[in-house]
Structures are given as C-alpha cells and as structure tokens.
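Final report, closing paragraph on structural work. Over the funding period we assembled a curated collection of sequence-structure pairs, and we close with a single example.
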Amino acid sequence: MPIRHCIVHLIDKKPDGSPAVLHARDSELAESTAIENLLADLNDSYNAKQGKAWGLFHAESGAHPFSGWLKEYLDEGKTFTAFSRVAVEHLQKLMEESNLSTGGHVLFAHYQQGMTDYLAIALLHHSEGVAVNADLDVTPSRHLDLGQLHLAARINISEWQNNKQSKQYISFIKGKNGKKVSSTSATSSAARKASTARERPAPCSRPSATSSRARTCPRKPPAKRPRPWSSTPPARPRQASQ
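Its predicted structure, as stored:
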C-alpha cells in the first residue's frame, strides 16, 4: 500500500466547553514502518465498521469548499501540508459549531491501493493501558485506540476524477441512531448522502444452474381454479308408479 502523503494534526478540545485549540504540524510525516502499520490497522478498523453511509460532493461553493481544496492539491496548486491545514482548520470550526465534546489527533493520508487512489481522514483517540518495560516493570502506556473509530471518511479519488456519473465515491461512518457522524468531519460541508444500490435490497432472482446462491422470490399462491357449477351427478328422473 504505497503512501503518497501523510500528516497528523491535533485539535485539543476539552469536555468543559472551552474553545478548541489547533496544534498543526508544518511538515509531512516521513515514511516509516510505523506509519504503514498505522494506516493498515486504520483500514482494517474502518472496513469492519457496519452501517457506513455513501455519498458524493456538493457542487463547489463558498458553503462547500472542500472539493475545491482537494482539486487544487491534486492539480499541484497546493501542497498536501497546506491542503490538510486548511481542511483541519475547517474541521476545528465545525467542532465548535456542533459542540463536539472532545477533539483528538486528525490523520490525513493519501495512499494507493491497487490502481486506486484514496484519501482517508480520521479523528483518532488514545486509550490508557499498561506495558512491561525492559526492566520488567509494569508502566502506564498510551496507545491509539483504532477500535473506537467514530469520526472517519474515505474518498475514492480515482472514481471521483474518472467516473462523473458516480454518486458513491465518498464513504463515512454514521453515528448512532442513523445520524451522520461526518457532520463534524472535514468533508462535512462538501459531502451529501446518496441513496445507492448498496443500501437497497437486492432484486430477487431464481437460482440458475451456475449459481445456487441467488436470492429467491417468494412463491405466489397458486391461482384458484373456477369451481364447477355442480360437483354431483344429476338426479335420475323418477319412474311413474303403476
């Protein structure tokens, strides 16, 4: 999985309602095994999430600027660092407007999987744990908890650029009760949900000779046959008595 660009910023937001403070990194992360492992684990966690929503960009405008920033970066009019900086500043603003209780580390990663380019954006949180050090002492240890992934989006850049008819090149994690958690993601003011074939039940079909896994239609009740006018033989005429 070649990683083209990767950077992490920090939005420090306390649950006491104080304003969020942005700590932005001014350079990309250098290639390392740790970054590769992080992105691989992030992809595994994201893929395992159930109930993701699919959508597409709104038309670029002052209210929906994200697609314009992304296009400018891809056209090499803006560096990846500059693109991520303006996007995370936008995210900081959205956090304030949505009253999100806590912030976290915001990961931006442009990577390639197969022949497809993706942009992943995720809000990461730490969990407190313990570890055993070289002296065999048990010590506190903090680690990224990718199992608690609640704010994340992934853009299929290749599909967005090459398939103008597509309406599902953005996926994002939905919140509880069907609410879109992406309302506080960097793509929020740009992405809109699309009803896609993935969310519709598959059309029913009869199993064929080559596939026994096709979904079968419910059988229709047999048509009622018309009742005969009479189900008993006609009575014989009675003979006259002598």
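Confidence is low (pLDDT under 50) at residues 177-186, 195-218, 225-234. The radius of gyration is 29 Å. We thank the funder for supporting this effort.
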